[in-house]
Amino acid sequence: MYIDHPDVILIGSGIMSANLGAMLKRLRPELKIQLFEVSEELAQESSNAWNNAGTGHAGICELSYTPDRNPDGSVDVSNAISIFEQFEQSRQFWGHAVAEGMIDSPHEFINPVPHISFVHGQEQVDFLKARYEAMSSHHFFADMEFSTDRDTIRQWAPLLVNGRDSTPIAATRMTSGTDVNFGSLSRKLIQWLADQEGCGVATHHRVSDLHRTAHGWDVTVRDLTRKQTFKTSAKFVFIGAGGGSLPLLQKSGIPESKGFGGFPIGGQWLVCDDPAIVAQHQAKVYGQAQDEAPTMAVPHLDTRVIDGKKAILFGPFAAWTTRFLKDQGHITDLPFSIRPDNIASLLKVGAYNLPLVKYLVQQGLQSMASRMKLLRTFYPEAQTNDWRLVDAGIRVQAIKRQDGEAGIVHYGTEIVTDKDNTIAALLGASPGASVSVSLMLQVIQNCLPDLLETPQAANTMKQLIPSYDESLQSPSAIQRFKQLHTTSEHQLQLQSS
Questions:
Q1: Which band of pLDDT confidence, cut at 50, 70 and 90, is reported for residue 350?
Q2: Which HAMAP family match (predicted)?
Q3: Cα-trace Rg, the chain
């Protein structure tokens, strides 16, 4: 179904567009919204459950968000606190969507899975203890547990301990962690959007060009089924096409796009779905980053719930690629993205990140034996026959003209907008999908502020995201945080059985 000359065009059917479209339609029901997706099905690239870690990133277990100790031995946990609060906004909105009947069956997209940080070696044990002391002192992480006792850690996650040598180990755990199927969630929200008056969703449609007009944007679209090309227009365009965002941003020609480049990194998982092994592991376990590894390649041993079935995934293993999308990409994506305004940034990345390039090549050439060797640092008794290798998604690490020596955005997300706020594009890395509601709220506040100007609109937004205009971080907000956290927990049916 097409909406002729909509107010808003959404490019891509992943979690970003899904959240933005649903929020916009709730804020102003009369808005006309059209979504275009290049794949034949919705949410098949970065949001597909097999193409991401499925971690409800709340800063609990990801050591890359708190990587270093200060000279006095303490650990700065401010990033983790910020990410936790942003994920709370995601939980609130998704919980509201369930409570209001916009989407159903929350167990199909979110499930309770404890989050564990696990380290070995005395230096890392000391680091994790310092991290725990800093985090547990904040009310967001008051329930965090820390242990160096093997019997305790074995109770949390027996695969980590059984068969391990005498090297010191430590772990932290919070049982309130989650596993999220962002693909399922995206499809549910977009189906709700498609059912609303004045909204259209078109799959197997590729947006091929964008041209600025006096009233917004002319958008060229190719219907891949009928093999026909047509044009439409909108006052506002959101490019949430995952790895495909950069080429479209470049085609827009906005000055703000100059200097941006993309560095694609492929991924692979080791997967075990043997019920006897899966039953022994109920946790997402994040470990120490490997030297030169990008943020998205920090190893973790994860319980996943995909389409109602549990499995254990380990990885991701990074790989060199020139594609920007896993299924809809082409080997020419990277070379065709090189422009005069970003070639210096790309060359700088190559010159100053030779260890990263070497790491990616080595990762791509790994044997199954070398992958199993890394797995056994988490799961000492792992047997090769129990695991299979599957391809994960592609992450296009954004490259900025001015970003220190390297130019690569390893952490966070870039929202690029033009000066008139008529177009916005999403580039960047983890935590991405988990904080998508907060990111889309930023898009609305920056690009469509008139949607929030009236008291009625502000009241609607408070219903969608109760804490959107307040901070839950301060000590005075402890009771408010507990109230909202408990409410979303019940709405999303996250109580542990």
A1: low
A2: MQO
A3: 22
